Amino acid sequence: MPNNYDEAAVQQILAIARARQGQRGPLTRAQLIDISRELNISPGNFLAAEEEWLVRQEEQTARNTFDQYRYQRLLAGARRFSIVSGLLLLADFLSTQHFSWSIYVTLGWLGIIALQAWQIYGASEDSYNRAFRRWWLRQQIGESFKAISERLRSPTSDEAPPRSTAAAVAFNASPKLGGEAADSTPQPLGGREP
User: Fold this and answer.
1) Model-level pTM?
2) Helix (H, G, I), strand (E, B) or coil at 160
3) In the chain, how long is the greatest CA-to-CA distance?
């Protein structure tokens, strides 16, 4: 038996041992904290590692969404190309009984689609990361604008009361024409006592 195991071997051995004991499914956070204590990992390092893992998971989810977005854009472009170039080829053939100008348009557009596909699937890691960062920034800006517009649309309870209410409060607190302070008893219309 070896004295040292790499991380992949440790994960596999623990998964097999848990399966033999009938423990299937994910570990709870408490179990993970216990394992980290037994491995002499400080709570601070554990929390930092957990935070880093969460950030990595979020980034991987965003990358998957980005990949799906790029694939859908390419697919939409290919569909447009198929429909429009088919109609152009048909119109060209019906008008001249052979293909003339539509071949050049179709081949040019096909070249653009091929270039887009190469940028998506044949790109280097650096160009992929640049494209991802640009897309991610646009997503974050869009979410920020959406949050700001929602905040502007929904009134908050901290706002001042409507003008008519504020004017009524100011009117009730103002002194009477003779310079006396307003009393809190309601006065009947016409100013006479009943």
Assistant:
1) 0.60
2) coil
3) 107
